What does this fold into?
Amino acid sequence: MGSVGLLYVGAILFLNGCMLLGWVDGKSAIPLNIFVGVLQVITPTYLIFTANGDAAQILGASGLYLFGFTYLYVAFNLWNDFDGTGLGFFSLFVAVCAVVYALISFNNKDYAFGVIWLYWAYLWLLFFYLLGRKRDGLGRYTGAVAAIQGWVTGAIPAFLLLTGRWADLNNTTVAIVLAIFGVVVFGGLYAMTRRTAAAAA
It folds into this structure.
């Protein structure tokens, strides 16, 4: 994924997470979803047309559409007050594809981005349960996961890539740190939100 595109994936995940947490009005999130969605559709289209048949470049560009179509879908839903079921089941498709991209990354020894793709698979699976299966109780948890992932999988790796620092890091170590962070933080958040919901009930 292009470093610039990854930066704005971070921005929109953070914004949409804040929206699910109730900190941002849904309508006010529409413009950035459109901006990033269009960016994540135009960019891979350009990369594919200029790839000259390079299978690796085409494969790398193909995953960007999953993000672009998601954000445009979110924008249309918010704009028109559509039911979220369609977006929820599309999110299940994205989650499955993200697992495949993770396996490809692991096979290519890009362990850090393999774990990052698994982060995204988990997040989109949460979107499926929240929207496709109407598990409204997951709303705040999904928002918190999205907001955190905006920084951990988007903004921070993007800045490291843009400044050339990513190449200085040990790929395996980064992958292990990310895996531990994800299990501890997202597991802890889930337990905390469950306790809060039980107390409220």
Q: What stands out?
A: Helices lie at 3-20, 30-49, 55-80, 85-107, 111-132, 139-162, 171-200. The chain has seven helices and no strands. The first helix runs from residue 3 to 20. The mean pLDDT is 94.
